[in-house]
Amino acid sequence: MLPGLIDAHTHAVIGGLAALSPNLQDEELDIASVRQRVQAWRDETRSDADRPLVVFGVNPATWKNPQALAEVFDVGSWMSQPLLLMGSDLHTAWVNRAMRAKAGIDAAYARGLTASQRHTVGVATDGEPNGVLVDAGVDLVTLQLPKPDEDLLLEAGKFAVRANNRYGITAWMDPAANAGPGEALFARAPGSTGTGILPAYRALAEAGGLSAHVAALLVASPLSDAADLERLNAVREQFQGTPNLTMPGIKIFADGVLEYPAQSAALLGEYSNSGKRGEMLLTRKGLQALVDAADARGWLVHIHALGDRAVRESLDAFEAVREHRDSGVRHSITHLQLVDANDYPRFARLGVIAVMQLHWAEMDNYLLDLVKPYLSETEFMGQYPARSLQRQGAVIAGASDWPISTANPWEAMHHAMTRHGPGGGLNPAERLDKTSMLLAYTRHAAQAIGLADKIGSLEPGKQADFIVVDRDVLEVDAESLKQTQVLETYFAGVKVYAAQ
Hints:
Number of domains: 2
Strand content: 15-25%
CATH architecture of the largest domain: Alpha-Beta Barrel
CATH superfamily of the largest domain: Metal-dependent hydrolases
Radius of gyration: 22 Å
Largest sheet: 8 strands, parallel
Structural class: alpha/beta
Distance between the termini: 18 Å
Number of helices: 19
């Protein structure tokens, strides 16, 4: 028996929507295979020509050759059928000409982008957009998607709860609960009052089906200020009091992703192919002001930062706040693909939790094909420095970022302990031990989602969230741990999952 596991960063309802939609499951496929599967989904759905076809889980390596995609999806009947191929990273996408026309993405739009925005829309040599979109560029097309109806949202929510309970997960942070199809994510306009997938959580709770604690965060625009937080608070107030749903704060995107062709994560150095450093999505002053305004409210701040420059500026913002206020709120930074060694001790000193998706700490096509050619060897091998952060006193919380990677915490623990994948090993010196990973998915994750006083350990006064597994996880090796099966999951003392 173990405490219920906690995922400190997962897009659970979006994961449910993706699972119920056409989905390529992040497979590495050639263009012909992509065409065959997408055409089959189009034939199967027979949607009207103006309704976009959305395919989730597309491996971002697919848009290394956007012209090849255009030769398939910008001809014949596809000339009038909008198509969105959503990257499995949820930060990149490719759209055909019909979808670009629907979103107003043409040569004139591309010419009007500022220097800091140009990376968001891929452009061919003739000045025409080539269909590749990054971060805020993806928002241009998601805003054109019809919002899912309440029945579909509820079904996605039910799927998410079942999937998580099956893995022994009884709590999670949803870090972008006010986003979803039909709404922006990365460039959310100040004052936006979108409710995203929050209605799904409320409907689940009202139906007695939310057998998990959900700490839902609202995404704050890079242009947000103290006044915008008041508008976000109006969204929070609509859902306050929903059983098992808390709304402890906000998420901020500091940068994007390292993978080519996006390369939108902010580096202290530069990408070797372009000499560029990636983009911070907020100014230093703007980031510090936003963090300060949220902290003054007692809100948790959770910052997306993959590049080492984004991590440093995020820590700078937390340090600026701590110099004049100790709110006691445990803020966090998530992803942490690159962290400069000089910043390792700052996490413990500032009380900032490192929320890490260590399932990614393996050699796969993302790292070997889309990252390795563009970083120095030292930077490449230093990715996801979990053990280095831990040695310097950082609290490591476990997370999946589902559906970007599997929600299975047992696989993530295995990868954190072995750091080995199909392409070899990634710096074994950064491996974490089993106890560290079990703490990462229980006590430490409870701290990260603001519920450490209620869950995360089995002791008097806390809620009876616990699981029964098929092996003694304290005794088995990493390979056996990966195969752990949950036999029963209990939420508030009630059995909510039992293996067949």
